[in-house]
Write a structure and sequence with these properties.
Order of helices and strands: HEEEEHEEHEEHHHHHHHH
Oligomer: single chain
CATH architecture of the largest domain: 2-Layer Sandwich
Bound molecules: zinc ion
Strand content: 5-15%
Largest sheet: 6 strands, antiparallel
Length: 304
């Protein structure tokens, strides 16, 4: 697991799949904070009330400049996130301990106490695993939450008109992306390699605008369409451009005078995979319940 290297050095104990530490009554657990496209290893501390912006500012200073933020386990932003210092964590054990001590002192000073009610039903509960979180939770509440998530997830399975829209937008994107390279090839008998990047970029934009649910088959299809478009363009445009060179010789076009042909195929090849990359990149911005569901199912399985 990701935190195995240093969690125990910090005094954390593994409870099933989550590292937990009790410090002066506060439960702290390790979890990745998903911020935009980043997964940042962080401390999570569930508290008894909503964390204000001023408190975050004060905490950030105590956390020695590491980012602090609020997370919500139920509907209140009452769980503090403190990101871990970057770089080699094993070398920063002392620093991380200092951060934890400072943060806990600051929480006490500001009157923030550990969370004591279940974030689902708002009644007192014992601490336990709640997916990849560790907070007061009832087993029944966790099951109820899991069913709701599974219901939400079901909505993204089966046929959705947005898939059709996605494919249409992606094809339009590819079509628009091809216009400039084609015009340049016909008129100047050369296109600038960078211009080909328009194809994966506009295809990814099309996928984004369709707001289609993230599906593996869709991402593969988008990637394949971009690949086919770029490869076909290269296969047609290169022989065409060779005809306009002085020697009309394929070998010299590829491997002499600056290796023009070789470079076009090399960079074109990289850009042809851009659709796969673009679709994968968009995924990072989508709410994906499957991981959370997996984590919740894991709690149940191991409790039985
Ligand atoms: Zn409950």
């Amino acid at each position: 697991m990701k935190y195995d290297d240093y969690a125990t050095l910090l005094g954390f104990q593994k409870i099933k799949n989550v590292y937990v530490l009790n410090k002066e009554g506060y439960s702290i657990y390790l979890r990745d904070w998903q911020y935009m496209v980043l997964n940042i290893p962080s401390f999570y501390i569930p508290l008894d009330k909503e964390i204000t912006k001023d408190a975050i500012k004060a905490l950030q200073i105590e956390a020695l400049g590491n980012a602090c933020a609020q997370a919500s386990l139920g509907n209140k932003r009452d769980t503090l996130i403190v990101t871990l210092p970057e770089g080699n964590k094993i070398k920063k054990i002392d620093l991380m301990n200092e951060i934890l001590n400072n943060v806990i002192e600051c929480l006490k000073d500001m009157g923030y106490l550990p969370m004591h009610i279940c974030p689902i039903c708002k009644h007192e509960a014992e601490y336990g695993l709640f997916g990849s979180h560790y907070c007061p939770i009832h087993k029944e509440c966790r099951n109820e939450y899991l069913s709701k998530l599974q219901e939400l997830n079901k909505k993204t399975t089966g046929f959705n008109i947005k898939y059709v829209l996605a494919l249409l937008f992606v094809l339009i994107g590819i079509g628009l992306g091809l216009i400039l390279p084609i015009l340049l090839t016909i008129n100047l008998h050369d296109y600038f390699t960078g211009v080909l990047a328009l194809i994966p970029i506009l295809a990814t934009l099309g996928l984004f605008l369709s707001k289609a649910p993230s599906k593996k088959w869709l991402k593969i299809t988008v990637g394949a369409l971009v690949f086919i478009a770029v490869a076909t363009f290269l296969a047609i445009s290169i022989p065409y451009m060779i005809e306009y060179t002085e020697s009309k010789d394929t070998f010299s076009y590829f491997f002499q005078n600056g290796w023009v042909g070789f470079r076009k195929v090399f960079f074109g090849g990289i850009l042809s995979l851009g659709g796969f990359g673009g679709a994968k990149f968009l995924d990072k911005f989508k709410k994906d319940y499957s991981q959370e569901i997996d984590a919740l199912m894991q709690n149940e399985k191991e409790n039985d």
